[in-house]
Every structure is written in structure tokens, then in C-alpha cells.
């Protein structure tokens, strides 16, 4: 039985639609197989580029702040001082022990025998007038030959961490010779002074001081 022209036309139209649907399906399949991954990767690259640009801007802003930050750091250093200016200790007892040890090392460095310069006493003393940082104070009494004492004082002033001397009192001590024709003894000095240094611990102001 032969199909009528109308039926043949209908079949041709359906075949075209089938072919069109197959073509669309193939295109969609190709898109997902090839272009989708490319587009996703491209989108990811765009996000990375945006992040890099933001990081670059933040870095540029930070770089522009470096000179100002350096000025502030220098100002703080000038005001507070470097950490090497302070004792290593972070408590009163440790600070007292450290300052005593430093004094002994300075005296030992500048003397050959104990008779040339000796520390008679070094008594810890509380800071009655707290300043910006906690202070360790020793009330020192020494008996030394003049030259040795000068060397000790000079090394003390130039020491790091920084040491400070206050209330310095010098008094010459007369030495009597027990026998004649003996080598004259070098004059000795009785020396009293306050030796102090700072710990890197800001003083906590009391409420009464703030008012």
C-alpha cells in the first residue's frame, strides 16, 4: 500500500524534528564534554585573578604604610630604648641578683687581686619614686685604689644593659705602715653610691596616681 503525499510530508517533517533533536543532543553533549570544563576553568582563573588583584592592592597599601610605621618604631625606640638597655630579669629578686652579678664582674675585670678593690657591701633598696619602668637599686660601699675605682666607674657607666650611678661619695682612707722602709701602700678610697638599672617592666600606676 502506497502512502499518500500528505502522509509522506508528515513523515518528512517528523524526520526533520528527530534530526534536529539529535543535533541539539549532540551539541549539548559536546558542550558538557568540552566547553563546560573550559568555561569552568576560565571562571576559576578569573576568580584567582580577582583575588591576586585584591592582594596586590592590599600589599601596595601596606608598602605605603612602611615609612610611617618605621617612623613610629624609631620614635618608640628613642622614648623607651632598645631591649638591650634593660636587665634580662623580670622580677625584683632576679633583677637584684643580676645587678649584683654584673657589679662583681666589672670589679673582677678591673682588678688583679681582691685587695686592689673590693665590695664591702651592696644592699638592695626599694624604689621610693617609681618612674616609667621598674628599677633595681643597690646601695654599694666599696674600698678601692684610686685608679681601680676610676676604671670600675667608667666601665659601669658604659655597660650594656645600662647602669646608672647616683649619690656618689668619695673619701680617702689613710693607711698606716707597720714597718719602716716598706713599699708605700697606694691610697685607698672609701666609695659609696647607689647603683641602679631598669627591668623591661612598665610601672603599674595605682588609681590614686591617676587622679
From TrEMBL:
InterPro entries, A to Z: T2SSM_b (IPR034756)
Regions that span the bilayer: 17-39
Entry annotated with the keyword Transmembrane helix: yes
Annotated protein name in UniProt: General secretion pathway protein M
Source organism of the structure: hydrothermal vent metagenome
Keywords: Membrane, Transmembrane, Transmembrane helix
